[in-house]
Amino acid sequence: MSAIYLLRKISTKTPSRFHRSLFFSTFSKESKPDSSRTNSIRHLSSQRFVPSSIYRFPQSKILPNRKFSTSVETNLNDKSFERIHVQSGAILERIHKNEEEETVSKVNVGSEKVVREESEAEKEAWRILENAVVRYCGSPVGTVAANDPGDKMPLNYDQVFIRDFVPSALAFLLKGEGDIVRNFLLHTLQLQSWEKTVDCYSPGQGLMPASFKVRTVALDENTTEEVLDPDFGESAIGRVAPVDSGLWWIILLRAYGKITGDFSLQERIDVQTGIKLIMNLCLADGFDMFPTLLVTDGSCMIDRRMGIHGHPLEIQSLFYSALRCSREMLSVNDSSKNLVRAINNRLSALSFHIREYYWVDIKKINEIYRYKTEEYSTDATNKFNIYPEQIPPWLMDWIPEQGGYLLGNLQPAHMDFRFFTLGNFWSIVSSLATPKQNEAILNLIEAKWDDIIGNMPLKICYPALEYDDWRIITGSDPKNTPWSYHNSGSWPTLLWQFTLACMKMGRPELAEKALAVAEKRLLADRWPEYYDTRSGKFIGKQSRLYQTWTVAGFLTSKLLLANPEMASLLFWEEDYELLDICACGLRKSDRKKCSRVAAKTQILVR
């Protein structure tokens, strides 16, 4: 990667009345903004849109040296990782690039692999994906959630969702098309600073939107302008903030740099600030006693009431991945060193917590079956006061001898024994689970193939909530009836995450087998969003057709299997330095003992 950074031309065009400034942290002296440019930009905070004449930081402001935050330095009593100070008046740079500006480097994946003929399903999938591209002022900025020509009421399926775009972005990157991903990352970063208010209350500053839509707004009688209209959850069902959006954004930012080799994007001051804002929001002190993120129901892919409030595995695995990404991408300096230290400490505590307390196999279930309750001591075995009666009857016969998985949720007096697919896959990809746990998860899927894969991969969770559980936990949700939608429906988009997990563990044949099952039906069924019934036999009763992330998940799986060297860029190996960090300060205490020290040997080898 060249270390030469080109100066971009500074536009003097007067911004429209729809401009809104971005928020950035206070700059260091070395990167102090040009006040003459700052004063030339009007700040109109009352507007709710991002206009077409957007500006960004000049490339000359990029930090010249890449200093990765791989330090594992800890500080037991230092919780004051930096506060990001908000200021108005942004120095921005024009989005549109001309021939004299720096171009994004691309990886010609095709030149590194044996050329193979695409199947009819792949050709049709690429056509659908390209037709789903959303353009903003002539430039691609994302893909709509679904593009069904027969759907007369698309609701919000005509918007660009951050989580939905990730498989589309990877498909484009693996094909050598990076511009749409770069544009998406920068535009969503600009939306991060918008006011987000529900009933006069605003959430944290680093929150990323769930989605955005390109709208045309009249400036006067004869002039219109394209604007971006974000949704931070204030229009969502249940008004739930999308906790996973910022985590996916960070994961995609790292993937963009890894695949294209263009690390200049993550080194930009505005991008560095965006990472810091998300991390500060996630790492803020609270009342919780655990390193896991505490969230409400419906704050991730499962965006309706499904009993995942608390500490769901999906959020924890994405959180861990985002922490590892941030640790790689953050430039280490005086303004970021406290944040980097906090990230290292959280990574260490989170990995221990998940590996030790979320893991279940037949041995662990037998241990829980014999738990004593109401233990009041610092060295209690049943730390969360779990009652053995919570073990569901189906689990006793379902768990295989050679397999295991990570619980769906854990909090005081509550274990959710459902198998949640996305969380377990990302625990493999990010090395949140141990190598042996990773192998056991894939062993379980292989042993329970008919339950998890069936006629259409993959179950979003297993098993379904039925009868009184469905009525009480979902509130009798008519969309989440048993074996439908988020209540154990089958989601083909999960194929790419399964593929990545299998390739990391050296078992691509499992992914190929699942992909072959999906390819038999997806084209004929017109690429549904999800499938219903216990085995995934029927198209979902409310499933949208031509669902973009179904198409993109299929294509990304194909590309990953065809390009294992590219797949290796997207997952993490075990980081043994993180396992040595312990910031609890109990090692020299006579009153308490560090549970991590006692469990360390089994955590490393389990």
From TrEMBL:
Keywords, sorted A to Z: Carbohydrate metabolism, Glycosidase, Hydrolase
Claim: Hydrolase is one of the keywords in the record: yes
Q: Which residues form the signal peptide?
A: none
| Annotated GO biological process | sucrose catabolic process
**Enzyme Commission code(s) on record:** 3.2.1.26
Reactions catalysed, as given in the entry: Hydrolysis of terminal non-reducing beta-D-fructofuranoside residues in beta-D-fructofuranosides
Give one GO molecular function term: sucrose alpha-glucosidase activity
- Any one cellular component term from GO for this entry? mitochondrion
List, alphabetically, the InterPro entries matched.
Glyco_hydro_100
Q: Does the keyword Amino-acid biosynthesis apply?
A: no
Tell me which domain of life the UniProt entry assigns to the organism this sequence originates from.
Answer: Eukaryota
User: Which residue ranges does UniProt annotate as crossing the membrane?
Assistant: none
Q: Name one Pfam family in it.
A: Glyco_hydro_100
The text of the family note is: Belongs to the glycosyl hydrolase 100 family.
Its job: Invertase that cleaves sucrose into glucose and fructose.
Q: What is this protein called?
A: Alkaline/neutral invertase
The organism named in the record is Arabidopsis suecica (Swedish thale-cress)
